[in-house]
Design a protein that fits this description.
Blueprint: E1 6-7, E2 11-14, H1 21-28, H2 31-36, H3 46-62, E3 65-72, E4 78-87, E5 92-99, H4 108-124, E6 128-134, H5 138-146, E7 150-161, E8 164-174
Parallel strand pairs: 5-6
Antiparallel strand pairs: 1-2, 2-3, 3-4, 4-5, 6-8, 7-8
Helix pairs in contact: 1-3
């Protein structure tokens, strides 16, 4: 089942396809991307990208995880991805995102995620959306705070990344009445 395409002034958020595997592998292979995202190992092979895209399509089918390609609205060049992890039983979701390093500091993460959040509240009648980041990832903290999330706490040793325990900060955004 295809996902709805979302647009902003500069971006298009749409379905990922196997033709995106090379770009995903290239962008996600940057060590700084891997260091900031729990689900991205380093290096990130094209085979891993193909497998991940297959898992994305499974998420589309079962409605539990919706991942969008974040692209330039004109050239359609892939900049990164944004994901909703849905828990519809409790009318909530978690949002996650990553943007290729060469596109950092352009506002793309904020722009794409803001659009995805507005869509998610409306489409899925959510009451709450969570966001989290590694405690040391200041860039993600800034994006999350720009989006209006409230800091809710520090989860000590919450993830294992590259063989080390890593703290995570959690934020929440509730539906406006």
């Amino acid at each position: 089942m295809p996902i709805e395409t979302l647009t902003t002034t500069r971006l298009i958020l749409n379905e990922l396809g196997s033709e995106d595997a090379e770009a995903i592998s290239h962008l996600a292979s940057d060590k700084e991307i891997s260091d900031g995202v729990i689900g991205i190992p380093h290096p990130y092979s094209i085979e891993s990208a193909f497998k991940w895209i297959e898992s994305v399509h499974e998420g589309y089918k079962n409605g539990s995880v919706i991942t969008y390609a974040v692209r330039d609205i004109v050239s359609k060049e892939l900049y990164g991805c944004a994901t909703l992890f849905l828990t519809l039983k409790h009318q909530r979701a978690e949002v996650g995102y990553w943007i290729g390093k060469k596109y950092w500091n352009s506002g793309y993460a904020t722009e794409a995620t803001k659009t995805l959040i507005a869509y998610a509240f409306e489409k899925y009648n959510l009451n709450r959306i969570d966001a989290a980041h590694f405690a040391e990832n200041e860039a993600s903290r800034k994006v999350i705070e720009k989006l209006g999330f409230s800091y809710e706490g520090l989860r000590k040793n919450f993830f294992i990344k590259n063989g080390k325990a890593v703290d995570s900060k959690i934020y929440g955004l509730v539906r406006k009445s």
